[in-house]
Every structure is written in structure tokens, then in C-alpha cells.
Specification:
Blueprint lengths: L29 H6 L10 H9 L10 H16 L6 E9 L6 E14 L4 E4 L4 E3 L3 E5 L4 H4 L4
Antiparallel strand pairs: 1-2, 1-5, 2-3, 3-4
Protein name: YolD-like family protein
């Protein structure tokens, strides 16, 4: 049995008629017509979420007692030489605002103050570094501490 849609003469009565143009509705712009067929963005922000999840972070390193003692000796030496505003390189941990972990940052500058009350190191440029986040301090003013053997 042949179906009605398989018959070749189904649209013979209208196939040669001119294209209908509405006198009431204006023609749609080609760009608007194309927008109808653009992909549906049901998951807006999904790509950004995937990229954020894939972004790697470091875990904070906890210094052992020996490392804490060396760092403390360096801070005491900086306090003694604070009037000289010694030049230092500091490596410290910065926690990530969006996910667990963070990254280690290295800054170079001159020390303005070691604030033991607030537990921060303040550089001349205004950089404030929490003492608990520092894993290394280097500088010419610290040479005697750098070469100490335990």
C-alpha cells in the first residue's frame, strides 16, 4: 500500500505559486533570522565553571620546627636592621579566593616594618605579608642566618 506522502503529485497544485510576502508584517532581517538557528545556551557559565575546576592550585606548606626557627631568626635580624630598610625577597602563600589551596608569590622590596602584634611584614611599597604565610626570606642583610648550620 502506498502512503499519501510518497505520492509525487502531492504539492503539484502549489509548487509553482510565487513566494508569499506579507503586507501586514515587515520582513525579518537576515541577522535576526540567523539568530533563530543559533545554539541554545541552556548551560550559561558551564564552560567557565569547567575551566575554574580545571585550574590548579597549590597546597600551603607547613614549615617544620627547624624551618620555623630559621624563619624566626631571620625576622629578628630584620627587626634589628629595620632602620636600614633592608632589601629582601619573600616567598609566601596566597590563598585562592574561589577554591581550596592557593599559590606561592615571590616579591622583592625593602622592609619598612615587622609588626609582631598584627603578625605581618610590611614593605616600603605598602605590601603587607602575613608572617604565617611566609616560607622563605632572603636578602644580603640575612647572610649570617642563611649560612647557619644546625
Amino acid at each position: 500500500m502506498q502512503r499519501e506522502t510518497d505520492r509525487p503529485d502531492r504539492y503539484d497544485d502549489i509548487i509553482h505559486l510565487p513566494h508569499h510576502v506579507s503586507t501586514i508584517h515587515p520582513s525579518m532581517a537576515v541577522s535576526d533570522r540567523a539568530a533563530q538557528f543559533s545554539p541554545f545556551a541552556a548551560l550559561t557559565g558551564h564552560d567557565a565553571a569547567i575551566q575554574e575546576t580545571a585550574r590548579l592550585t597549590d597546597q600551603k606548606i607547613e614549615l617544620d620546627e627547624n624551618g620555623k626557627e630559621i624563619l624566626n631568626d631571620k625576622l629578628l635580624l630584620l627587626i634589628e636592621k629595620i632602620k636600614e630598610q633592608p632589601a629582601v625577597t619573600v616567598i609566601f602563600f596566597v590563598a585562592d579566593e574561589r577554591k581550596a589551596g592557593g599559590s606561592y608569590v615571590t616579591v622583592h622590596g625593602r622592609v619598612r616594618k615587622v609588626d609582631r602584634y598584627r603578625e605581618v611584614l610590611i614593605l616600603l611599597d605598602g605590601t603587607v605579608i602575613p608572617l604565617d604565610d611566609i616560607i622563605e626570606i632572603e636578602g644580603e642583610a640575612l647572610c649570617p642566618v642563611d649560612f647557619r648550620f644546625y
